[in-house]
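Form P-L/3: holo structure prediction, ligand adenosine-5'-diphosphate.
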Amino acid sequence: MQNITRNNAKKKRKGRIVIISGPSGSGKTTLHERLLSCKKMKKVLVKSISATTRPPRKGEKNGRDYFFLSEKMFLYKKHAGHFLESERVFLYYYGTPNKNVQDHLKSGRNVLLCIDVKGAKTVWRKHPRTLKIFIKAPSLDVIQKRMKKRATESDKDLALRLSTARKELKEAKKYDYVIVNDELSRAAKELETVILKELLLKNN
Ligand code: ADP
Ligand code: 5GP
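OUTPUT (holo model):
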């Protein structure tokens, strides 16, 4: 066996980006938090923390839920090329810090992004191997009820989120998978199954 060597034996396989997208109130945060509370998933996937100019909601922590930035700092970082993608979503700016994502991918880790449909498109154009998952609530009425119950937005912001949701739903067909978040445990299981199946597939 001395005369046989395997080329690239030590070359690390690059990680893959997984995007969870869908209208505000469809349950992306609830589902991805459930997903990452599972030990098995934590080994497979690391979450990218976005930057935003939105003020923190009750219970949200800087560096854990988002990096909360002033508009001036956000725009400075945007122009300095700090973001893989960034968008104005509703009333605020949101962006995916590039360096962390690239570092994770290089070291073979898969990275989860929970971002809006416009930002998602930018990412998958740059990274065509991206796994794209769209989360839907059963209806717009359900979204409205859930957002009212969440009680984190003003009436004006809520109306804007609902009218945007109508447009965003048209994008669902561009995704690899669409999951309807009606019953939470079922939707969470489906999300986990899809991600594990895709990430553990060879040659993806
Ligand atoms: P998003 O991150 O997409 O804006 P959230 O995860 O914040 O949505 O969910 C919006 C609200 O709906 C939250 O109050 C959450 O607790 C609730 N919620 C999420 N999924 C379900 C579900 N399957 N059934 C009932 N309520 C849900
Ligand atoms: P929220 O204010 O409810 O946390 O998020 C509002 C919207 O912004 C959601 O659709 C969420 O997925 C999206 N979002 C969060 N982070 C990012 C990001 O880094 N980039 C983009 N484009 N959208 C984001």
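COMMENT: The domain at 14-201 is CATH 3.40.50.300 (Rossmann fold).
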